[in-house]
Amino acid sequence: MRLLIVDDGHYIVEYLKHLLDWSKFGIEHIETTTNSIEAKELLNQNHIDILITDIRMPEVSGIDLLHHVHEKKLNTKVIFLSGYSQFDYAQQAIRLGALDYLLKPVDKEDMEKAMRQVIKNIAEKPPKTPVAEKKIDGLGYLLSVISGPSPLRYDHSTLDTALRNEHFCFFHVSGARGKDEMMLKDHNGGRDFIWITPSAITGIIPESNTETVASSVDSISFSEPFEFSQKHAVRHIFYHFFFNENIGARDFTMLSASSALPKLELGEWEQTRKNILKNFAKLTVKKQKLLYLLEFINLLYSTTDKIQSAEVADWIFNQLSEPNTALQSILQSLTQLDRSAKFSNQNIVHTIQAYISNHISDCLSLEDLGKIVHLHPVYLSKFYKQETGENLSSYISSKRLEKASKLLIDSNLHVLDISHLVGYKKPQYFIKLFKDQYGITPYQYRRQQIK
């Protein structure tokens, strides 16, 4: 299960993260953030089972996050924290579906009690989230099954559930014709599980359709059947079918002990290229090279959308059988990414800033800004700080307040209206930020400037 901890206090987040042995409650992955706007993005993009959040935060409150959970029909269970003991907050939280309400400072015993209640609730009400299978990234899903975990991969647990108990086979067709491609697409269960490279068509097909397809597509070969839920078996079948290599759990253990994957930092592509070249040189056995490169391809594909799925499919199904050849292709792409980053980073910053200026009254979520410049929302924050030395949220706030100061002088609009025009739905919060920035309230600023 996945846990998300949200509080605008960094110390509190770190305290909660280490308060319990979360693994005892089945928590395998913990996300934390002090940015409540970012919390929405994490809820949208990751299957979060449990959310522990402060009930009162600037811009997006814990109550807002709970509303978001309901609106998006997420299965996330929510525990609220607060330094405020007013009963009306507790009433509102419980009425909206929070499972518990804890006062700060949080006691370990109280948190354990709350977690036991949450786990019991999850066990009693298993999630029933519908899955739009046709919209999935089939290549990303396959990589999530045959590789180790990567930091920003979207969660596929609902798809795991949808595909449970169904048997599939890998297939390969050399020199395929157009009608073969159509036949395979018609019989792959409507899923994005077909990859076309210059020399072949490869993919995944329901076992129940293999006999029909075999009678119509010449020279097609199938792997033995598998279930996606049996990930070790899928890995073994994948490597044996495509590369004629027998891979076991011990091989993954040996790889992780001898050649750690490089840490990817946005824009540091040249350093990443050097690291992968150095690590690859240590490997002497072909199957270890295959494992290492596929793990790195997975990490790369799940971290940046600058690498297209067609290019990744070509690496895996066309080039990876010769690891040294595949390595050169991957290194070339990293060099291109590095060059592109150097030329485009400033343009990305300008694009973000121009969009903010033109949409100052909008929500300006990390997800929306990330789509504009093709960056993952989490990496967008890191990228902007790296390039400008300033937090993106701070920049947005400063531009909003700058716009507000001009409106206070150049218009007769009420402060409430100005607050909304610059993107703040809560006037009290706007007034607080304005006073923090200018040392006086908006009303005082207007009187002072007009004199």
Automatic annotation (TrEMBL):
Subcellular location: Cytoplasm
PTM annotation (4-aspartylphosphate): residues: D54
PROSITE patterns attached to this UniProt entry: HTH_ARAC_FAMILY_1, HTH_ARAC_FAMILY_2, RESPONSE_REGULATORY
Keyword DNA-binding: yes
InterPro entries with a match to the protein in the record: CheY-like_superfamily (IPR011006), Homeodomain-like_sf (IPR009057), HptR (IPR051552), HTH_AraC (IPR018060), HTH_AraC-typ_CS (IPR018062), Sig_transdc_resp-reg_receiver (IPR001789), Tscrpt_reg_AraC-type_HTH (IPR020449)
Record bears the keyword Transcription: yes
Domain called Response regulatory: residue spans: 2-119
Residues annotated as domain HTH araC/xylS-type: 350-448
Keywords: Cytoplasm, DNA-binding, Phosphoprotein, Transcription, Transcription regulation, Two-component regulatory system
Protein name: DNA-binding response regulator
Organism field: Paenibacillus odorifer
